[in-house]
Automatic annotation (TrEMBL):
The chain crosses the membrane at residues 20-38. It comes from Frankliniella occidentalis. The gene is LOC113204031. The keyword Membrane applies. This is Retinol dehydrogenase 11. Gene3D superfamilies: NAD(P)-binding Rossmann-like Domain.
Length: 354
């Protein structure tokens, strides 16, 4: 007896499902197991910071510490009892980050301070407050970064292309303002968080502070972001050359492809998500996993400088880029950045000199 119209159809469908389910499971289960194995294998290759030594009395400055890689870096340093200055643009987000970190560790000292890398005035103010409050600074971690669709043509407060201004120039200025204190606190370190995307960057001094080259805009990668990440490496190269044997060691690193909120300004169409999700499952790492490399460069003793004046790391190991870095370009970028600050913010430069 049929209790509702179509009961026979439903029964037939259930019977069909029962027939095909073994075949489906025969395919799906091995596929899922294989994907999980690849994920585990990939994750194992990422490396981790094994230095658990207490960092009491050490002062670490982490830019962009309110989220993503910066927050996880601050968390791991606090776990090791360090004093961590969390340099953040959004102070409300900074205090929420402190609250979140305190759920996992009571150790260390977390000091939120305001820093907007899109404003040279803010960089100068932050540096002066930091120098007044901290007689020693042991590690500067230039982590903060952003990626915004280039068609929006974002500019900083000082009229500089946003990626170059925030990801490179703000950190360049900050590093210079803190450099003497870092030397006085030696042994100390400066760490620039770059990206594997530096390989797609181009240093063209006619366009660098204005935006990417027109020829770069036809690709799928964010050109201005790639350019800024290449600048991070060249900054480390020239900085390492200039500090010499002063006791300040310089490193740059690629933290890997991470869930860090970096791409929050992008709106991808739904069909791209379908493509990205399985790839992300296999190769994308958490912010905690990505921060392992940052903390490794900050803490590990006797790290080799595989590029002579500086070290380049990925997966907690020395990394050799496919890009042939030119020391002359590194020097030119330093001079270009220095002159740009003098041109765009002359009143701030006068205060620095005085």
């Amino acid at each position: 007896m049929q209790w509702w119209p179509g009961a026979a159809t439903a029964t037939s469908l259930l019977h069909d499902v029962e027939l095909i389910m073994p075949a489906v499971l025969t395919v799906v289960v091995p596929l899922v197991a294989t994907l999980c194995f690849i994920r585990a294998l990939t994750s194992w290759s990422w490396g981790r910071c094994t230095n658990a030594m207490a960092q009491e009395g050490k002062v670490f400055v982490v830019t962009g510490a309110n989220s993503g890689l910066g927050k996880e870096t601050a968390r791991m340093l606090a776990q090791r009892k360090a004093r961590v200055v969390m340099a953040c643009r959004d102070m409300a987000a900074a205090y929420l980050a402190v609250e979140d970190i305190r759920k996992t560790t009571p150790n260390g000292e977390l000091i939120p301070m305001q820093l907007d890398l899109a404003s040279l005035e803010s960089v100068y103010t932050f540096a002066q407050e930091l120098l007044a409050d901290f007689p020693q600074i042991h590690v500067l971690i230039n982590n903060a970064g952003l990626s915004i669709p280039d068609e929006k043509e974002p500019m900083t407060e000082d009229g500089i292309e946003m990626h170059f201004g925030v990801n490179h120039l703000g950190h360049f200025f900050l590093t210079n303002l803190l450099l003497e204190r870092l030397k006085e606190s030696a042994p100390s370190r400066v760490i620039n968080v770059s990206s594997l995307l530096h390989r797609h960057g181009i240093i063209d001094f006619d366009h660098l502070s204005k935006g990417p080259l027109p020829s770069q805009k036809s690709g799928n990668l964010p050109p201005a972001y790639c350019n800024s990440k290449l600048c991070n490496v060249y900054h480390a190269m020239e900085l390492g050359q200039r500090v010499g044997d002063s006791g300040v060691d310089v490193f740059t690193l690629c933290p890997g492809w991470c869930y860090s909120g970096l791409m929050r300004h992008y709106n991808f169409p739904w069909y791209k998500y379908i493509t990205i999700v399985p790839i992300a499952f296999l190769f994308m790492r958490s912010s905690n996993k990505g921060a392992q490399g940052i903390v490794h460069c900050a803490l590990e003793e006797n790290l080799p400088k595989n590029y002579g004046t500086f070290g380049f790391y990925r997966n907690c190991r020395p990394f050799t880029s496919q890009t042939p870095f030119d020391p002359d370009i590194a020097k030119q970028l330093w001079e270009y950045s220095d002159n740009l600050i003098k041109t765009q913010a002359p009143s701030i430069v006068k205060r620095v000199l005085n």
